[in-house]
Amino acid sequence: MPVPAIFDRLRLPVIGAPLFIVSNPDLVIAQCKSGIVGSFPALNARPQSQLDEWIHQITEELAAHDRDHPEAPAAPFAVNQIVHRSNDRFEEDMTTCAKWKVPIVITSLGAREDLNHAVHDWGGITLHDIIDDRYAHKAIEKGADGIIAVAAGAGGHAGKWSPFALVQEIRKWFDGPLILSGAIATGGAVLAAQAMGADFAYIGSPFIATPEARATEEYKQAITEGGAADIVTSALFTGVSGNYLRASILAAGLNPDDLPAPGPDAMNFQSATGAKAWRDIWGSGQGIGVVDKVTPAAELIDRLAREYGDARRRLSL
């Protein structure tokens, strides 16, 4: 199955992951203008009416960029939809996405045939994130165009499988668009993802340490100072296993080396400490050891492109 033509405008085979709370129009626009897919969770726009404003802004600014730079048009953008029944904004957000004919919709926490049909009707494509092969099968059976394979080491709600195991099992039966997520933070890692069998790399945590990101300065600093050893895996904060920055757990008054076991009593940590997942307990992947300063998104993408080119030349590809 060929990669959809919508990706032909990419400068680099990278999709910027939608970062809860952090991603916003400024970051998405910077990513797309620099030649990678930019994305954001629909739920980041609050109140719901702001989603229309955000997509309008992104659409207009990217169109203006294309008019001014016909030799280097912007990459497409994506909106992430949480399809779980707990999302009471789902229908409204989908209506807004339909209004603007959002080119790519990334779905999480459930696969829905009706969503896939709706996006296809307006000419868009859907990518569904999964953590194992069983969920990948379900996504394709329900009409998703591509799969985002979230492997161990990814930020936020990460998978448990090695990227090698995850990609090779999916590639046994699926020849469509495959995006790999999990500690990818260099151009060499992007090429490695492709060598493994993926079409694109999914990069999130390095973009937290950019001026465009809607993150606190403390969060950005923790990204630049952290490494793989500073990532703590726990299901305490949301009930689902995820990867978080040690510094934020300490700041919440918790011992990252002795966290309570997940469960009803453990979830009371929010009321006891006043800390909230994502806002105060910061998600991050294990690849941040190469992020040593806050860098504009365009410069970060330039670095990735140079490293990607260097890696290809080293391997004579």
Describe the protein.
With 317 residues, the protein is of the alpha/beta class. The protein is built from eleven helices and ten strands. The strands form two sheets. The protein has an eight-stranded parallel beta sheet. Strands 9-10 form a two-stranded antiparallel ribbon. Strand 5, helix 5 and strand 6 form a beta-alpha-beta unit. Helix 1 runs parallel beside helix 2, helix 2 packs parallel to helix 3 and helix 7 packs across helix 11. The protein is globular and about 50 Å long.
Biggest beta sheet summary:
8 strands, parallel
Strand content: 5-15%
Uncertain spans = none
Order of helices and strands: EHEHEHEHEHEHEHEHEEHHH
Distance between the termini: 23 Å
What structural class do helix, strand and pairing data support? alpha/beta
- Arithmetic mean pLDDT: 94
Radius of gyration computed on alpha carbons:
19 Å
Looking across the biggest beta sheet, what order are the strands in?
Answer: 1-8-7-6-5-4-3-2
Question: What does the overall shape look like?
Answer: globular
Q: Helix amount, in percent?
A: 25-40%
The number of E-state strands comes to 10
Number of helices: 11
